[in-house]
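note to self — DONT lose this again. spent like an hour looking for the file last time. sequence + predicted structure for the chain T wanted, 395 res
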Amino acid sequence: MRAETLRKLLLYLWAHRNEEISEYAVATEALGRRSDFDPKTDASVRVQISRLRRKLKDFYDTEGAGGPYLLHIPMGTHVLTVLDDPSRVSISPGPDQEAERFSIRTLIQPLLAIACIALTILSAWLLWDRHKLAQRPVAQPASFWTSFLGAGAPVKIILPTPVFFTYPKLPKVHVRDTAINDFESWRNSETVTSLVRNGGDPTLDHSYTVTSDTLAAIDLAHYLDTVGVADRVAFEVTGESSMNLLEKANVVALGAYSTLHPFRDYLASMNFILGPNEAWVENIHPAAGESPRYAVVSQAVGRQIEPAIVAVLPGRSPNLKLLIMQSRHTSALVGMLTSKIGNSLFEKIYMAHGSPAYFEMVVESETDGDHVIRSWPVALHAYTKNAPTGADVTQ
């Protein structure tokens, strides 16, 4: 719960970073306090602000050290400030030192992960603001994105939050079973059930996003900024989103075999199916000359060709679309679709299949460890079904 509270507080302070905000506003709008909240008798806002200030300091003392930007809450305020040079500020104990000491004793390790995730996303938005202030020239979007963005609707980039479990009596234990993709199935996991005796029945913990997908999403958001649609783009996470988004926005979903489970009805309706551990893509109805299966091919030690899926499918309202990028390396798919060479390769196979409004495509990427060397499409099928309506993103 503390992780979720700090995450919401950080996002609220970011959204109001250019405004004068009161302790009462923070309490009622960010922390969910009642309208009769009295800051004179309730120090909860100061405590939470102090915790967040300390977590930001911890971040910049470790993972964020040397970064070009620093998010900082000056002592005695509730305002989030952005500094270009981290050396400009010294974070030292102040009047709320005791609250900070209390937070250090009580905070648990996952809070740092939450702060890093939020900071990563917010840093991307900061870069967009700087780009707009500099009035950078707007580039012409590649043909793939011209079609996807055509209706002028909002764009929601969905980051997967894999199902993690925690336990009432073991608050520092967080468990992930990659075979379990919804909370109600926890009894099917030996790993999850093995801790019930000592920890009690598990609860859902949505404190994590996948780092590689988060970075791929930021790359995509940066590209959409360069083509002039930054004001239409926002991030969501599967743990807090609903499939109702498909009725209101063009949705981009990034993930792997075990993290796109919320879109299972869409995935089940497709001809191309990504296998466990991203080891292969099955081609259920191969066209003439197509392989029935595209498997990982080892070329040398650490170097291999990996299959993945890109699909543009109908949303739940006219002219809206769902873009699925399913891969071990979603950054490879983003890179292909946002590069001139990648779009040229896509256009060739897309036009050869009649330029369908909706389609699914197999993409192969040559990788060396976690480094993507190149990506190219190898098969494309038109998608002619209606939008599935059975599943919801909320896990």
